[in-house]
Structures are given as C-alpha cells and as structure tokens.
Write a structure and sequence with these properties.
Elements (H helix, E strand, L loop, with lengths): L1 H4 L13 H5 L2 H32 L2 H9 L9 H4 L2 H4 L2 H21 L4 H29 L3 H32 L1 H22 L15 H14 L2 H11 L1 H4 L1 H4 L1 H6 L5 H25 L5 H13 L11 H14 L2 H12 L5 H30 L1 H27 L33
Helix pairs in contact: 3-4, 3-8, 3-9, 3-10, 4-20, 7-8, 7-10, 8-20, 9-10, 9-16, 11-20, 12-19, 12-21, 16-18, 17-18, 17-19, 17-21, 20-21
Length: 443
Amino acid sequence: MAGRQTGWHRRPAEEQATYREVFAVREFRALWLAQALSFLGDQLAQVALAVLVYDHTRSALLTALVYALTYIPPIVGGPVLSGLADLFPRRTVMIVCDVLRAVLVAVMALVAMPVGALSALVFLTVLLGTPFSAARAAVMPDILEGDRYVAGSAIATVTNQVTQVLGFLGGGAVVAIVGTREALALDALTFGASAVILVGGLRRRTAPRRRERGSPGLWGGMRDGVRLVFGDRVLRSLVLFAWLCTFYVIPEGLAVPYAATFGGGAVTAGLLLAAMPTGMVVGSVLFSRFVRPANRLHVMGWMSMLACLPLIGAGIHPPLWWVVALWALSGVGSAYQLVANTAFVAAVPAAGRGQAFGLAQSGLLAGQGAGILAGGAAAQVFGPETVVALAGVLGLSAAALLTLGWKQVRGGLVAGTPVAPAVASPGGGGDELSGITRSAPAP
C-alpha cells in the first residue's frame, strides 16, 4: 500500500482547461466523434435486439439473455484481449475492432437467423468492444495533457450519457418506424463511420510495449493487471464501487417486459431505458455544483446507496411515470461513478494503463451481464417489478458494506486529494473517466 500511495500525491491543480481548448485538438475531435457515433448506434441496436427477441419469443428470460450478451463476453476473453491495447498500436486496435464489428452487425441485419445464432454474433461483437475500449481509454492521455485530459474526459462522459438517452428514446421510435433489422443496419453504419474517422483523425503511434521473446504476453499481462488492481486496497475498493452497478443495471435488461406490464411497446421501453442515463447527467451537474471537490470522496458511498435505494419502490407496483422517476433518481445516485473513476485513474501507473482499464471494465460488464441474466430468469417466476425491487435491496446492502470499508481506506489518503469536478462549469474542466463503466460512462 505504501508503494501505491504515491499515486495520490499529485501536483497542484493547473489552471482549468476550457472545452474550446480541448476541441481545438484535432485528434480529440476525431476520437470524440467516433465515440458518439458508435455509442449512439449501440443504444439503437440494444433496443432493436430486445424488441426483436421479445416479439419472436414473448419470453422475458430470452430477452434478458440476448441483452445480457452485451455484457457477458468479458468473462471469457475481456481481461486477456484488453492487453492488445498495450501490445499493438492503439489506433490500429480501434480501427480493426470497428471494422470487424461493422461486418458482424451487418450480418445480423441482413440474414434471418434463430436466436442462438443471433446470440453468438452479439457475443462476438461485444467481445471486440473490450480491446477497443481499453485502447481508447489508454490513448486519451497521449492526446490530451494536463487539465485538458480532465476536461476531455468530462466531455466524453456527458457525450456518452446524452447519446445513451437519445439512443434509447430515439431507438424505440426508430425501431417502431423502420423495423428492427433496419435499426441494426444503422448500427453497422455507425461502426464503419467510426473506423473511417479514426483512420483520418488519429496519427500513427508505435505500440506502447515491445513484444519481445520472454515477455509475459496477453495471459501474463492479465495476471499483472489482476495483481495491480486487487493488490492495492484503494484500487480494489474503487473497482468494487464501479462494479456495484451490477445491481442497478438489472432494470435495463427487464425494460421491455416491464413496459409490457403497462401495455406498452418499444416506445415505452425506450422511455424506461432513457430514465437512468438522464438521471446520471442531472446527478453529475448537481454533484459538481453543490459538493466541494474535497468532499466528493467522502460522499461517494452515500451516492452509491442512492443509486440502489429508489429501485426498491418497484415492489409496490407504482404507475409508469413513478417508475420512470424512480429509475431517474437511481441514475442521479450513480453519478458517484465519476469520482470513483477519477480516483482510479489517479492511482493507476501509466505502464499498466491499458491492462488495468481493460480488466476493470471487463469485470464490470461481466458482472452486469450476469446480473441481467439472473434478473431475467427470476422475472419469469416473480415478474419484473418484484425483481427490480429485489435488485435494489441487494444493491443497497452491498453499497452499505462498501461504504463502511471505504471509510477505512479513505482515512489513509492525503486530505484534500484533488478530484476533478464531475461536470465542469461552462468552459471549465471536468471529471476523468477511466472507461470502466458502461451504463455510467466509458471514454
């Protein structure tokens, strides 16, 4: 612990960078636009896949299974594949992943296939997202330095949440108008456009780690990443806070059958899916304006409990608009992820950046997928309302335990450790995100 503690002694904060300064960097503009396009397409595809499977099977379990496949692949290969971001040029990793994902989604759009084959293609598509996300998170500090890096990460955070809201709200309407397969075709186009933008917008860089004989390779790098993250109390606690969204993401996997309980379809499901990311944007703004930077690590635990507590209200079977409000309030609480991710980045050494980010993200997505799958199975028996309420109870219990442990770890940190604001004031800096979340943000 003593050896890692130095990561928290950072130099005094620089003058805040403005968003204009960040967007003046050509490479960041390319990375940001590629991110926005592909992420918007992802949300559209998630709605389309959920509606496609539910319309064909009328099964909450199978719907949750396919939705969970957008989270589960990291269990199999994520921690290993994320090491590609340290072994190969990160620009190349991102471009190749985008091209392969465009091809796979295009096949899903053009070829009629059973649920099993569709699930396999979804699995492969999401698996390719792991090295892409690790490479993108790792290349950001090479593009932006100092406080520009913090401001750029804030832009990425807000972009992810806004595109998630637009994707879910617009996704339901688009699927209802053009159809599910046409919506998947649009997702394939966003991956292709992202690859083209990265080709023209990012400059070539050499691989950050030489592939020499006797080097640890992917499996050895994964072991190093596990030791790095879980061998340090601070990093371990922060990763567990990030993984807490395993519980409060469960409603997303049940949005379509939950909407059906109100007699609604794709548009209602899109409304439910948009509630949490909308709440997180609001929570980020409130967090940055009313919580002083020195206090953000202190209130992180309370915010994590707020992310789970409102879900318990589903147990009383409230009307649709109450459900939307409760899910949005859960999103407000989930803004704690911004501070957790900032602190994680502050403590991770640059040499293991890609592997640490990839490992944390992989575990997060894997846990979310397992939670959604378990929620879908339980919803077959108890109904979506009861399962969402149970997820809130379990998540609140886990958040309370993490908060108690965090008080002990936090006591060893230097008082007043700089933590960037979650969302900058106009023209100011913002929060850094390591790319270890999905429902919450990923740069």
